[in-house]
Fold this sequence. Notes:
The structure is a homodimer. Chain A has 13 helices and 11 strands. Chain A is α/β, with parallel strands linked by helices. In chain A, helix 1 (18-31) links the parallel strand 1 (4-10) and strand 2 (35-41). In chain A, helix 4 packs across helix 5. The termini of chain A are far apart.
Amino acid sequence: MAKGNMLIAQSGGPSMVINQSLAGAVLAARKSGNVGRIYGALHGIKGIMEERFIDLRKETEKTILAVAATASSALGSVRKKPTPEDCRVIFDVLRKYQIRYFFYIGGNDTAETTHIINEEAKKAKYEICCFHIPKTIDNDLMENDHTPGYGSAAKFVACAVRGDDLDNRALGGVKIDVIMGRNAGFLTAAAALAKQEEDDGPHLVYLPERPFSLEKFAADVSAAMKKYGRCVIAVSEGICDANGTPIIAKFTKEFDSHGNVQLSGTGALGDLLADELKKLGIKRVRADTFGYLQRSFVGVVSDSDSEEAFKAGEAAFRAAESGVVQSGSIVIKRKPAKKYGVSYEVVQLRKVAKVTRSMPAKFINRTGNNVTQAFIEYAAPLVGPLPKTARFEQLIKKN
Amino acid sequence: MAKGNMLIAQSGGPSMVINQSLAGAVLAARKSGNVGRIYGALHGIKGIMEERFIDLRKETEKTILAVAATASSALGSVRKKPTPEDCRVIFDVLRKYQIRYFFYIGGNDTAETTHIINEEAKKAKYEICCFHIPKTIDNDLMENDHTPGYGSAAKFVACAVRGDDLDNRALGGVKIDVIMGRNAGFLTAAAALAKQEEDDGPHLVYLPERPFSLEKFAADVSAAMKKYGRCVIAVSEGICDANGTPIIAKFTKEFDSHGNVQLSGTGALGDLLADELKKLGIKRVRADTFGYLQRSFVGVVSDSDSEEAFKAGEAAFRAAESGVVQSGSIVIKRKPAKKYGVSYEVVQLRKVAKVTRSMPAKFINRTGNNVTQAFIEYAAPLVGPLPKTARFEQLIKKN
């Protein structure tokens, strides 16, 4: 690869560890002899088009590591799919700044944008390395065992539901927790990590991978109330009816530039489900929508997620520097060994761009209202240990 | 005080540290020679009426301390104001079990119940010590500098808003965070602890202590958007219009047995406020309602709150054992010294029962849309240090 300057940016929804990936790539670049200037574009490709850069050689390593440990996207983010005209503007800027290494951190929409820029670069015969660094709390990127950002968000969800279950135990009734996840139920499923004893919640888990019906929901909750005298429910914001229409789509009309309906930042779904259960005569029904706290709550982070996010950034720079391939997306693969471990590989951008993956069938129970033990075994090492909680021995039901 | 058995129970909304108070009282009682059996009633006075007790001498000290460090009410809770008929049933049970020490942990409704039981006991000439142990994340108990449960909930709110502000910085627009607090704005005000730099959020803080108008709100947000290019707002679920009617009351009709309207467990207020701002033409407006996570999230606790909750429980038992007064409520007073410290005193139950306190005027700014430095100085030691966060030096605006 020719020597040149480097540009890195962040895109899509923030996560607890997206700055670890930024730090991983930047610190590796700073140690390399192949890179000149290292620019950070503000707010993704929007910042490139507007030439809003900061100089990432100017920041101390101490600051970079402190930023790495900070939630949300330190360079700012954007949700923008570049048009052909945008791409022309972007290339003009890349040429002007002699950028030969471009790294874009984000989810599948970000991978798609990286892919588009890479394809346009090829057409323009502009020599540049374009690498996508994975990030998504949804855990829905193709080719990956799991994605940076998921473990920490999953830890937040598990901690929240563990506490919520204790809260529900104290006051009874039904508690509904609406959890992020557009098409993939991985984050909602993480609620199940909260469970320790047989009668612990969540008692029901609804995922976008299975059609949701209000009738089945009401019947499930009635059965759980009968069995446990209370009920804690984890439900994905992305649940759809049998026709594939998001339940929430009936209540909102906001779409982003990638054509996705707005699911988060509203309590409408939780309120709808709660109203449905009140019709059954259940007196105390409460719904919380975890919302943006899941992706940027300060102070809850999974150690392995944090480490892997950093290493994914590092791996992206090394892949670019090695010159084996000119572009690609870093993916995380789980080693087949019994002890948890991962490796970082490079796949073609188009394999990660646009299409997402969802929960495999083996992670969802037959009745479609909970997860399986296989999911717990999959997710537990990504989240790590939860804070310890205890109950009085006399109150723990023995089987 | 005559020797006898002891009964302890929990009531009202759970908190992160309510079990510390339980442990403080129970462990002190176990070390005392003046107490026979130590019963824990399940679900407050409901459990007393139904004789649902556990034996708190049977649990190991290790278990009690592990439960102390666990969120929510380990004995279960209840929201119930006893009728005269209930009181008769309760006395029958107290006599049957020879209870001479009664401790009830909770907020002002719990203090009121303790007071009612104590008054009825006097009428019935039944000799019993009745003590209320303070707990409320709302921080609204009379006579107290602050209450156990507040510091930890405030820490959760500050961590959430700190992360949320970083998130909003990345993607822009307006973010509304709806925070618990019926009549007192203390918990919502704690959002201000998230702020480090001048341009950090929360940029606006709305409290139940000041009348809320949608017009003023819209004008405030427009001004903040002009100044910061984005806006993070902390708003109390209990905000009222100029007539004192809760804004949310227009959307819900659920009341508890103390006559309070249901404010939590619904996202309606956040959605209403978001819709109002969308009318102004602000493109990206999101609202999260923190809900029950604020009082039972596993893993976020203030060290001083935790310690004080334990000591308040201990103080209640010691006050009862000393026999100086036959009943009372433990209150926390702040020492006037520069270095933060507290003492535990006993006041009459009626002084804490029913009536609540709200934020003093000195804690609220003149325009009624933020807190003052005096509040920050008041609240900071109750919450303790927040997790460290950092930004790139080049992105921090210098004044």
